[in-house]
Backbone:
């Protein structure tokens, strides 16, 4: 399969390239040049008036939670989880998770997201949706085992069996991680077994970390250490780890995260909505931590919009630190692109370059909220909307063209999801 994008304004590592052609063969970008011939090409896309850029990455979400979008708003995290979300999730079926995940994939594709990191249950259904939709994903079954009893091996068994079935599937687009839900929901034995399996199978680890002040205070009371220091003591970071949130971390914690090469998913929208706080992004970046961006689930955000997260990441830290130079637009863009691919362990993504993964999106620049276009990169971070994305290409396959989904029947999935809404009240 070959694709030729013509007449684009391309955001490459060398800067903005005007009236550029991007040639794709199979799963890779093969040429980027001012003008390339269309002879023999399977698909030609005229990108006149559009910006070509690498696909965005959602480094932390729970895809099927789109079915709970708007179900429980304006609540603190623990009551939100314990009184609303967990009871509702206990009623979810595998079929509901499949259709909700497909709907989530549709939202990601329409918002220019080409890869994402997910943690949930009924993960085979999530994987089926991802395979059909054509996205890249790092998928993980969320393990919970607060006591060192028989549940530990059951949870690890489910996670390992999922990895056996799906790791490397869909032409390598689907990768699998191991996901202890959090330090406070998983006993030491589960963390130890996670590391054993992760090393044996060469898998990443995906977890929630230091999301709330209460979580940190509980760990200090129980163990005399922060969650970061305690997990480090257990050796939990000896496998490549994606840690979501890291809101309440101190200098010692940040040093550990940096020294262990932990990837952090900064989720400003969800953290603000739940009143959890704001992660110290400038300090993490200054220490050398690779930080990506995530939305968390749509029940706590309430969308999967990486353009919003880019803008929040850039604006929040300027205001908090009273520093207009904090997290400039190019850095926010890097968090949403290159750093996301690094966090997910998907080499070759996050840049428009020859030999890079053919994960490319086109953004319509002829919009009233974008013109005049003095600096395209700043416009993308501060002004662009998810709905400005016209085309999404993943692994050399066009998933959306001119806002029309090509791998998902949007009308049919919408109907199924709306039929399933309010399932928790039945």
Residues:
């Amino acid at each position: 399969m070959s694709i030729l994008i013509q007449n684009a304004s391309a955001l490459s590592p060398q800067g903005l390239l005007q009236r550029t052609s991007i040639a794709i063969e199979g799963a890779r970008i093969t040429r980027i040049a001012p003008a390339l011939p269309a002879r023999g090409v399977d698909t030609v896309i005229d990108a006149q008036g559009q910006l070509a850029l690498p696909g965005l990455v959602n480094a932390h979400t729970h895809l099927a939670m789109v079915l709970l979008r708007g179900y429980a708003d304006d609540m603190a995290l623990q009551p939100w989880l314990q009184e609303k979300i967990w009871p509702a999730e206990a009623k979810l079926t595998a079929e509901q998770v499949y259709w909700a995940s497909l709907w989530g994939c549709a939202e990601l594709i329409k918002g220019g997201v080409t890869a994402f990191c997910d943690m949930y249950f009924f993960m085979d259904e999530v994987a089926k949706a991802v395979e059909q939709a054509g996205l890249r994903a790092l998928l993980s079954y969320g393990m919970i085992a607060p006591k060192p009893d028989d549940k530990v091996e059951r949870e690890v068994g489910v996670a390992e069996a999922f990895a056996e079935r799906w790791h490397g599937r869909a032409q390598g687009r689907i990768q699998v991680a191991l996901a202890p839900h959090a330090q406070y929901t998983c006993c030491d034995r589960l963390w130890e077994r996670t590391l054993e399996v992760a090393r044996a199978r060469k898998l990443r680890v995906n977890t929630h970390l230091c999301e709330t002040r209460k979580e940190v205070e509980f760990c200090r009371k129980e163990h005399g250490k922060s969650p970061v220091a305690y997990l480090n003591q257990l050796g939990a970071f000896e496998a490549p780890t994606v840690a979501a949130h890291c809101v309440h971390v101190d200098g010692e914690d940040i040093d550990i995260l940096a020294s262990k090469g932990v990837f952090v998913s900064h989720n400003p929208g969800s953290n603000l909505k739940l009143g959890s706080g704001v992660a110290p992004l400038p300090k993490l970046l200054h220490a050398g931590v690779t930080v990506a961006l995530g939305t968390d689930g749509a029940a706590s955000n309430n969308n999967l919009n990486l353009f919003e997260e880019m803008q929040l990441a850039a604006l929040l830290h300027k205001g908090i630190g009273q520093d207009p130079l904090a997290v400039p637009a190019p850095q926010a863009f890097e968090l949403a692109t290159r750093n996301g691919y690094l966090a997910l362990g998907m080499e070759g993504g996050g840049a428009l370059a020859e030999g890079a993964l053919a994960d490319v999106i086109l953004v319509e620049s002829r919009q009233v909220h974008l013109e005049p276009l003095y600096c395209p990169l700043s416009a993308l971070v501060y002004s662009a909307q998810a709905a400005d994305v016209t085309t999404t290409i993943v692994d050399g396959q066009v998933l959306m063209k001119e806002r029309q989904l090509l791998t998902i029947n949007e009308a049919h999935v919408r109907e199924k999801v709306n039929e399933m809404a309010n399932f928790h009240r039945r």
About this structure: The chain has a mean pLDDT of 96. The longest strand covers residues 2-12.
